[in-house]
Amino acid sequence: MNGRFFGGNQLEVMLYDGLIKYQKSKNTNSTLDEDDQEVAEQQRLEDYARWLENEKSTKDESLS
Q1: pLDDT average, residue stretch 2-13
Q2: Is residue 61 part of a domain?
Q3: Domain that holds residue 37
Q4: How far apart are CA 58 and CA 33, in angstroms?
Q5: Contact (Cβ atoms closer than 8 angstroms) between residue 5 and residue 11
Q6: Is there a domain that residue 59 lies in?
Q7: Which helix (H) or strand (E) holds 6?
Q8: Dist. CA 32–CA 59, nearest whole Å
């Protein structure tokens, strides 16, 4: 994948070491203001956390 082009950008691929704080890309197509974007991101993260918990519960039940 390293060096390939995607969406007009060249990818730089490396393993994540857990230390680097990456900047979020700006969504230029968004019509939301900054506060609404933060609310939307918080909702997305909460939905993802619920999904992870649901997946964990499903796997735990299947192992029982």
Answers
A1: 91
A2: yes
A3: 32-64
A4: 37
A5: yes
A6: yes
A7: strand 5-6
A8: 37
In this prediction, residue 64 carries a pLDDT of: 63
In a domain, 43, yes or no: yes
Q: What is the 3-state secondary structure (H, E, C) of the chain?
A: CCCCEECCEECCCCCCCCCCCCCCCCCCCCCCCHHHHHHHHHHHHHHHHHHHHHHHHHHHHHHC
Total number of domains constituting the chain? 1
Within a domain: residue 44? yes
Please tell me the predicted confidence (pLDDT) of residue 37.
Answer: 82
The angle subtended at Cα 59 by Cα 54 and Cα 61, nearest 5°, is 95
| pLDDT tens, position by position, 10-59 | 999 989 888 988 877 766 556 778 788 888 889 999 999 999 999 877 77
Q: Dig out the tokens for 22 from the structure.
A: 């990456």
pLDDT band at 61 (very low <50, low <70, confident <90, very high): confident
